[in-house]
């Protein structure tokens, strides 16, 4: 018994020393950082986030612990983040959901309730049909759809999700009424392949493999510039329509976090984003690594927020909670 | 033979791959046994390790964990009446009574053998008819999925045979609780009372831990305070493995379970729990001695166990051939493979046929190792029963709290778990069956989602459920299921 007690004492003493040694150094960061992922394990946000966290911990010299806090389209993570201590030890892996879930009214705050470190990556959300669909081009779909309003079913990952928002934007732009089917991330691709839905709006990374395998056809991307992964697909801007909504991911922290800490985090984020491992993943999956600083990102969020707000208002989804 | 098949077999049979399979299987067994730790959690724990490993070794590790986790979940269900994974819920119905009777060894032996056969059967499905089955499953649209889930819910009738009113009430409570959180179609909050944590909805496992474990703990506390003898600790392990006669009793339930499991596994998002309950129910209905079910009979273990392991191979079919996950674990597996630049889907068999086949053979080895490891761990695990309750019960209580927290890293879920604990206690006092509530919690979300998506697609036209042949088939099966339950319940009453 006494040896156990002795060992316990030694262990406590050791912990004490470690703790004090840690608090004695003033520089940020001196302990593990929580890296909060707003979606469940195994999805795109999770895999990309975990790799970024790993690369960032190499730069910062402390572990970044990925923690999934899924639920309510990201609202649970963002609420946690807004209420966390503004010391930089809690980072949120945001996405377009920071604009969608807030504008749906799932939170009582907007995207600007947090401080934003920067954007890491983005990808377009193309308009996709089955490979044997009668529509060979986006124009075919537009004329067919205008002649048959409220007929075609467009699958998305969930009502109020980024894919649904983009689908509404595309349909508003071409002035066509469709039925939106919230099939979920798992059911979305399957519903197009089975013919249950006539088309879908999906993140590029979710559709590109099936498109390359000849099962799906990408008709258009709601962007202004062509995407390097699918260089042959025309953009909505080229086709003369105004619809653009990317799926982006970046980092946010609690409001009021000191500038020096935010600078350090941004530096680590950029280095991690440009690391060989992260760029390799981007190439494999088909998203674009393009770090954006806090100022540019905040401006981008502001303009995108107005866009999302207007799209939701047009569909009666704005603060519809 | 196709050289790629041979190459795949060799890669999956390398010493390193086999070691990874064994390690995964053992880890899965442990993770599966701990309440609140799902197979998904286990895979997430080892995922960072797989980043640096060779793809074939990573897959071997992950598949070992997948298969082992299914087994471990059943161990906890049999030994502690706390299913380690949702798929093991049905196993607890007959497994725990056997364990109380002192036949834990036999119950586990049955579970291990049934799981092995179920897993092996789904391996052959995966190997031979994968592309064919995947095409069929892909034709399931929202109305068909709704009718399938509805069919799953009709099982409630068999569990409510004693008192239909109490059974249906229990199911209705479950269906009402499912509506808490985000509306699956409109994406807006329902019954959250302004609490953001409620918006995430009630996680099925949180509810399950509360419903199963808390009343169990309280009951144990009361019995130990009353000074009752600790029957479980004193119980002897009569036998470990089923004898020939018992094995022959397993043939029918295992056949039902394997086929049901493999097919339902292929359907995206359906998963193990439904397969386990459906095969349990049908084995019971087709059995001559229905009265034994629920009191601890090996048929009641063999059916759900073969089913939940057959689901694993089934779920790999759409994942490998179409890149569409059949359950949460295969969704993570797809992610893990993508890190290595190997995207499951139609392209994989064309571009990297050797790798695709090595995945299939790694699954084969996972089943073999699971059998070996589970059988060798059996004696040790049965000893768990001999642990004094004063030590065992607090440990379980801690695991319940840790488990419900770690599911979503949200402490709110711990309160939810305790709420369900109180609900479980109340239901026990009222003699209300818990299983219908559990089924409603598992299936309710899907039921609502498919119903509403189907009706959105048809613009409110209900006829789609009858014009789609698949949907019609499942609706007819549901009717048969309900009538059958009542008929056999009445017959049982007359006989008794």
From TrEMBL, chain A:
Its protein name is: Tripartite tricarboxylate transporter substrate binding protein
Annotated signal peptide: none
Q: Which InterPro entries match?
A: BUG, Bug_dom1
């Amino acid at each position: 018994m006494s040896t156990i007690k002795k060992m316990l004492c030694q262990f406590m003493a050791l912990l004490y020393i470690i703790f004090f040694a840690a608090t004695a150094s003033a520089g940020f960061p001196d302990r593990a950082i929580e890296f909060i992922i707003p979606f469940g394990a195994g999805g795109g946000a999770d895999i990309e986030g975990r790799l970024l966290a790993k690369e960032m911990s190499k730069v910062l010299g402390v572990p970044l612990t990925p923690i999934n806090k899924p639920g309510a389209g990201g609202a649970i993570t963002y609420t946690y983040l807004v209420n966390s201590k503004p010391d930089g030890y809690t980072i949120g892996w945001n996405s377009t959901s920071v604009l969608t879930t807030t504008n749906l009214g799932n939170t009582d705050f907007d995207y600007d309730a947090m401080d934003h470190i920067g954007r890491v990556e983005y990808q377009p959300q193309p308009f996709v049909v089955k490979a044997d669909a009668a529509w060979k081009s986006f124009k075919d779909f537009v004329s067919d759809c205008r002649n048959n309003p409220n007929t075609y079913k467009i699958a998305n990952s969930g009502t109020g999700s980024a894919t649904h928002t983009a689908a509404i934007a595309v349909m508003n732009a071409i002035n066509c009424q469709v039925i939106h089917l919230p099939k979920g991330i798992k059911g979305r691709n399957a519903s197009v392949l089975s013919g249950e839905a006539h088309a879908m709006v999906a993140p590029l990374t979710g559709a590109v493999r099936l498109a390359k395998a000849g099962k799906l056809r990408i008709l258009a991307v709601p962007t202004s510039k062509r995407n390097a992964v699918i260089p042959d697909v025309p953009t909505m801007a080229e086709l003369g329509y105004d619809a653009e909504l990317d799926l982006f991911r970046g980092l946010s922290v609690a409001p009021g976090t000191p500038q020096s800490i935010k600078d350090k985090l941004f530096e680590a984020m950029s280095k991690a984003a440009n690391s060989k491992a992260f760029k390799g993943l981007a190439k494999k999956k088909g998203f674009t690594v393009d770090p954006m600083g806090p100022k540019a990102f905040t401006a981008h969020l502001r303009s995108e927020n107005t866009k999302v707000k207007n799209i939701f208002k047009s569909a009666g989804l704005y603060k519809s909670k | 033979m196709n050289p790629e098949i041979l190459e795949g077999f060799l890669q999956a049979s390398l010493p390193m791959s086999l070691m990874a399979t064994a390690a995964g299987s053992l880890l899965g067994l442990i993770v599966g046994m701990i309440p609140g730790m799902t197979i998904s959690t286990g895979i997430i724990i080892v995922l960072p390790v797989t980043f640096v490993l060779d793809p074939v070794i990573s897959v071997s590790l992950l598949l070992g964990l997948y298969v082992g986790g299914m087994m471990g979940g059943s161990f906890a269900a049999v030994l502690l009446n706390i299913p380690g994974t949702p798929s093991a819920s049905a196993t607890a119905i007959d497994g725990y009574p056997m364990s109380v009777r002192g036949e834990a060894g036999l119950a586990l032996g049955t579970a291990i053998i049934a799981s092995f056969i179920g897993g092996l059967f789904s391996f052959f499905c995966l190997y031979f008819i994968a592309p064919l089955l995947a095409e069929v499953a892909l034709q399931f649209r929202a109305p068909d999925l709704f009718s399938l889930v509805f069919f799953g819910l009709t099982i409630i009738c068999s569990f409510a045979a004693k008192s239909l009113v109490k059974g249906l009430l229990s199911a209705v409570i479950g269906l009402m609780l499912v509506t808490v959180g985000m509306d699956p179609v409109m994406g807006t909050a329902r019954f959250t009372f302004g609490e953001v944590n409620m918006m995430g909805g009630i996680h099925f496992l949180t509810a399950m831990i509360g419903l199963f474990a808390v009343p169990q703990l309280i009951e144990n506390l009361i019995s130990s305070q009353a000074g009752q003898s600790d029957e479980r600790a004193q119980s002897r392990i009569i036998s470990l493995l089923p004898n020939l006669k018992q094995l022959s009793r397993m043939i029918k339930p295992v056949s039902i379970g394997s086929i049901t499991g493999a097919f339902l596994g292929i359907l995206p998002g359906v998963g193990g729990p439904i397969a386990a309950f459906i095969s349990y129910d049908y084995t019971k209905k087709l059995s001559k001695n229905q009265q034994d079910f629920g009191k601890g009979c090996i048929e009641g273990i063999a059916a759900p166990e073969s089913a939940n392991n057959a689901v694993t191979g089934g779920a790999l079919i759409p994942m490998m051939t179409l890149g569409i996950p059949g359950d949460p674990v295969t969704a993570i597996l797809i992610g893990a493979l993508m890190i290595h630049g190997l995207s499951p889907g139609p392209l994989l068999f064309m571009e990297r046929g050797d790798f695709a086949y090595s995945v299939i053979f790694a699954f084969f080895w996972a089943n073999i190792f699971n059998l070996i490891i589970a059988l060798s761990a059996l004696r040790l695990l049965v000893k768990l029963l001999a642990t004094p309750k004063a030590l065992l019960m607090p440990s379980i209580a801690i695991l319940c709290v840790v488990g419900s927290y770690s599911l979503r890293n949200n402490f709110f879920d711990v309160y939810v778990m305790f709420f369900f604990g109180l609900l479980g206690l109340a239901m026990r006092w009222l003699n209300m069956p818990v299983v219908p509530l559990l089924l409603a919690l598992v299936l309710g979300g899907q039921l609502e989602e498919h119903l509403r998506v189907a009706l959105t697609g048809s613009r409110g036209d209900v006829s789609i459920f009858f014009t789609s042949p698949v949907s019609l088939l499942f609706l007819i099966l549901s009717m048969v299921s309900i009538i059958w339950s009542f008929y056999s319940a009445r017959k049982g009453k007359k006989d008794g």
